[in-house]
Amino acid sequence: MSNLNVLISGSGIAGSVFGFCLLRAYPNAQITIVERDATLRLTGASVDIRSSAVDIIKWMGVEPTIREQTTNEKGVQFVDANGKGVATLEASGNQSITSEYEIFRGALAKIFIDPIIDRVTTILDESIAEFEQRDEGVVVTFAKSKERKTYDLLVAADGLRSKIRGAMLNTKPEEQIQGEGVHAAYFTIKQDLLQGGHLAKWYNATNGRVIFLRPDPNPAGRTRGNFINLTTNSQLETRQKLDNALRQGNESYMNLLDDLFHDAGWLAPEVLQAMRASDDFYCSLFGRVRSPKLQNGRGVVLLGDAGYATPGFGTSLAIIGGYILAGELMNHGGDVPAALKGYEDFIASLVAGLSNADVAMQWFNPQTWWGIRIRNFILGSVTGLKLDKLAMMAGSALGYSEKKVSMPDYPWPAKAS
To answer: What is the distance of C-alpha 186 from the center of its chain?
Structure first.
């Protein structure tokens, strides 16, 4: 089936990578991307690319462009309330806490969609109201236009709270989200609070409050701001407030951050003020998605965060997922049900072995001043004695550097000249 008719819900990284790979396999495929926003969403916080996703971006031919547009972040420095550095974890080629491929989400999304934008149909300011699986394909009803169209494949790349996932499983989308009490807000600060430095700054206050500032290479002088809240099971009231504000929208969430961070110390007043002046504020639960199934057996499939959101590895999984889904469709000659089964088997096995980054976040960010001091002392000692670098060097020498996924060897057609 060389002229597959595919609808992708969501214009982000997962959907764009899939579209790119599918057009390599099937140049005549008809691809439509529907995006609920009025424009392609080319904003977002810093993301990174790791593991076998690095091999995929090289295969796609976009690795040089990605490398040119990285944030130039040189590592992360943990600071105290006076802004004094207590420990620095430097970036390394071994993909440390700062990845070799650290890039803003919007820049990466643009790099992925630019090569295919003239080969696909985009529908903006629209979403899917409902869909029905029939013998002839997936019949989709659009929310605003009420138009009904039939597709061979519906790809749900609509994120953490995927409505398509909820409809496919006949549940509320929230039921598949696993959170360990980590909430985050991201925004661009219109001044350089890092004063030209290339080290990100990480500050912990009590009660699980974190201010994280990251460099932005924009010549106008900017900083990427993050407020992170980590709540334990003994702080359910605060966790509930964060969840409620998240549902109510950006204004409610910013009001809550004003209340929670006004006395946090360090640069909290300046960052709160800059948050109010930002144009791209975004807040989210730092949560995982583990859907009990990734496809309906016929023509609907979950891709990226919609099926397997994984903090710390989500962007790489989105890239790997898009590549695998297109590869399976090619491997099975356009037999959609067989391809979806092959894709699901591979991805389910991959994500089953991934650790829970939320738990690591809780351990790494103590709730009390004494806990923070102990953490700082340990980090300062380890980095001061260069033990972190020695551990990375030894691990690399022994073959324990960042683990890559064993990828299928698909017979991709030669790239058109």
So the answer is: 12
Distance CA 33, CA 158 (A): 11
Read off φ and ψ for residue 328, nearest 5 degrees. Answer: -70, -40
Pairwise CA distance, residues 52 & 63, whole Å: 13
| Tokens coding 404 | 């890559």
E strand or H helix at 348:
helix 336-352
- Unique residue bearing structure tokens 């089953």: 352
Residues 6+ apart with CB under 8 A from 35: 10, 11, 41, 122, 123, 124, 125, 126
Picking from 336, 337, 412, 413, the residue whose alpha carbon sits closest to that of residue 5 is 336
Nearest to 224 by CA among 251, 203, 201: 201
Local confidence band at 401 (pLDDT 50, 70, 90 cut-offs) = very low
Contact 211, 271 (CB under 8 A): yes
What pairing do the DSSP bridges indicate for beta strands 300-302 and 153-156? parallel
**Sign of the C-alpha dihedral computed for residues 116, 121, 127 and 132 taken in this order:** negative
Separation of alpha carbons 184 and 123, rounded Å: 30
- Going 297 to 302 to 308 to 312, the CA torsion angle's sign is positive
Helices (H), 353-410: 357-364, 369-384, 387-397
Q: What token pair was written down for 43?
A: 């904003």
Alpha helices in 197-289 (DSSP H): 236-248, 250-261, 268-277
Q: Are strands 222-230 and 102-104 parallel, antiparallel or unpaired?
A: unpaired
- Is 202 in contact with 214 (CB distance < 8 Å)? no
Residue 32: φ, ψ to 5°: -120, 135
Among 112, 119, 94, which Cα is nearest to 44's? 112
Quick: pLDDT tens for 315-336: 999 999 999 999 999 999 989 9
Say how far apart CA 105 and CA 252 lie, in whole Å: 24
* Tokens matching residue 201: 């700054």
**Cβ proximity of 170 and 130 under 8 Å:** no
Q: Does residue 309 come out as left (phi exceeding 0), alpha (psi in the -120 to 50 range) or beta? A: beta
| Contact criterion met (CB below 8 Å) for 333 and 4 | no
**Between 99 and 262, where is the model more confident?**
262
